[in-house]
Amino acid sequence: MNIKRMCRDGSLTQADMAVTFDTLNPVSIDMLIGTWKVDPSYAETLGGKMLIESGWWGARFVDAETVDPLLYPKPDGNGVFAADLPSVLAVLSTGERDISARRNEVETSAPIGRLRMVEYRGVLTATLVYDQVPVLDYLRAIDSGTIVAAVEHRGLVHHPDYALLRRCPAPQ
Asked: CB neighbours (10 Å) of residue 34?
């Protein structure tokens, strides 16, 4: 399986990421600094589908203490804003799917996550720790511009969900 080729041609699936995750390289905190756009393949999962349909754009890693894992496009299309996860979940629970339209209810200027080095499946790798919910995103690299997150939620008994993110400049 050539995961780099599958990333390029858009054919990478949740099953592919599950099979290859343990073969990927660990990620350092410094390697993550920047802005990352989520790949639509995350919509194969229930939680991913909800986030993708809500307009989730990607994540921003400023430093180890400052992570904005939920970036959404501004309603005018000029740039992105950081959203608070509990607020996003509250809006989504109403059936609303356009988070950008509810910016005033979900936007936050405070980071809602941090990075830590955590051993996962025998590999020490950078991990996104959410401040307000029991979720960890264990990060591995396909290459310097492409990462896969194994997303684990406390209490779920199935395998993790996988999110593919690509480094890119934040929209202006």
From this structure: 14
Distance of CA 144 to the CA centre of its chain: 16
Quote the CA–CA distance of 75 and 103 in Å, as a whole number: 8
pTM of the model: 0.89
CA dist 142 and 104 (Å) reads 36
93-102: long-range pairs with CB below 8 Å, 24+: 97/50, 97/53, 97/54, 97/55, 98/54, 98/55, 99/54, 99/55, 99/56, 99/72, 100/55, 100/72, 100/73, 100/74, 100/75, 101/75
What's the rounded mean pLDDT across residues 132-137?
92
What is the CA angle 28-34-40, rounded to 5?
Answer: 95
* Cα distance between residue 13 and residue 162, in whole Å: 9
pLDDT confidence of 154, banded at 50, 70, 90?
confident
Report the DSSP pairing between strands 66-73 and 80-82: antiparallel
- Decide if 137 contacts 118 (C-beta within 8 A): no
User: What residues are paired with 139 via a beta bridge?
Assistant: 149
The answer to whether 43 touches 52, Cβ cutoff 8 Å, is yes
